[in-house]
Amino acid sequence: MKAPPAIPAAAYARRRRQLMRMAGEDAILVLPAAPERIRSRDTHYPYRQDSDFAYLSGFPEPEAVLVLVPGRRHGEAILFCRERDPDREAWDGPRAGQEGAVERFGMDDAYPIADLDEILPGLLEGRSRVYYHFGRDAEFDLKLIGWVNRVREQVRHGAQPPHEFLALGHLLDEMRLFKSKDELRLMQHAATISVAAHEAAMRASRPGIREYELQAEIERVFRGHDAEPAYGSIVGAGANACVLHYRANNAAARDGDLVLVDAGAEYRGYAADITRTFPVGGRFGKEQRALHDLVGDAQAAALAQARAGVPYEAGHEAAVATLTEGLLRLGLLKGSLRKNLADGRYKRFYRHKTGHWLGMDVHDVGEYRIDGESRLLEPGMVFTIEPGLYVAPDDTSVAAKWRGIGIRTEDDVLVTDDAPRVLTDALARSADEIEALMSAG
């Protein structure tokens, strides 16, 4: 599969300018890069850049701070980053340095990160508002407060310290919620890789296979296409599928089990998120198919609501109504549809919402409600649709034939001016399609 082009430096510059216009001329915006995290003793987790920092800079290195100063004559976009260091680069790989920050990443100016303490108070002086993500990094919070206090100490000498501190997410989250064409190309590529990974798992499935073997098939495909897991892959066989965030991935899949796989690739910082549930032996049992078909109906009902101008919550409501009606028809619930919906009785079998925003983070930023009301969908929004049913293995209130069945079907959906576009539509979804794919494999 052909990889899409990287997002150009000019696109990051446009984002920075848009954010500064929203913040206003007397503001300053401060974004630190993600810190490196210790895994054990002197080894680190694989580094992953902070999504907001990456969204505005494209800069992949740790130990960096992006400062945006709207209207500054000597340059509005300033990056503090590590200096070039041949000795360290021989150990850890090349660094951009200050020259690379300007030439490759389009910054107006760049300084060594070691100079941050000296320079940033001067950038804060004369600015009335500071936009920053307070509470994410306690150590950096204290540093920023210290820099502001240094400006305050100079008030009697005419210094003008900031007097207002605002949450950066209030502006930036809304920008990130609407995906550009560049972003959608990367998201589609992540989705296409994820489809291939799920297909590999289905084809590899056989009675006795361990969950981690299926996980290995999935993540082999990710890495084979220069992607990585967007989150911890969930592979739950049998009753493990009823654990929503199952992590162990170490059980054997027995003949007659269903396997729920929730896994998505991250490509160039953009996530996919797919769930499929398939029979380890290639054929659904009667009860398994009945519940799988019902989940498919619920997903179709939610997808029909994924149109511009429709409240976001309408998809969840459609899925819940479809699931509840089906559970009554199959005998897992009793009583009237209205009463079951009003009392939330379906929650025994369906405990989560029907989706979430998707983008640089798998649970991406963006408000779901505005002024207390479910926000209306708009073109450029991307979210998941993922209804499911989970019958606990020890639920004696239902017939034994239903117990221990867990099913979820999840796809990634783009809202357009017309019909929704399902980024993950190429992957087998219905029971018949899944069985055909597995038999062909």
Write the SSE topology:
Blueprint: H1 9-23, E1 27-32, E2 38-40, E3 43-44, H2 51-57, E4 65-68, E5 77-81, H3 86-92, H4 97-103, E6 109-112, H5 116-124, E7 129-132, H6 138-152, E8 164-167, H7 169-177, H8 181-204, H9 211-224, E9 228-229, E10 234-237, E11 258-263, E12 265-267, E13 270-271, E14 274-279, H10 286-303, H11 313-330, H12 337-343, E15 369-370, E16 373-374, E17 382-385, E18 388-390, E19 406-408, E20 411-414, E21 421-422, H13 431-440
Helix pairs in contact: 5-6, 8-9, 10-11
How would you describe what is shown here?
The chain is α+β, with helices and mostly antiparallel strands and 441 residues long. Helix content is 36%, strand content 17%. It has 13 helices and 21 strands. The strands form 7 sheets. It has a 6-stranded mixed beta sheet with strand order 6-5-4-1-7-8, sandwiched between helices. It has a 3-stranded antiparallel beta sheet with strand order 9-12-13. A hairpin with a 2-residue loop joins strand 12 and strand 13. Helix 5 crosses helix 6 and helix 10 runs antiparallel to helix 11. The radius of gyration is 25 Å and the shape is elongated. The model has no long low-confidence stretch (mean pLDDT 97).
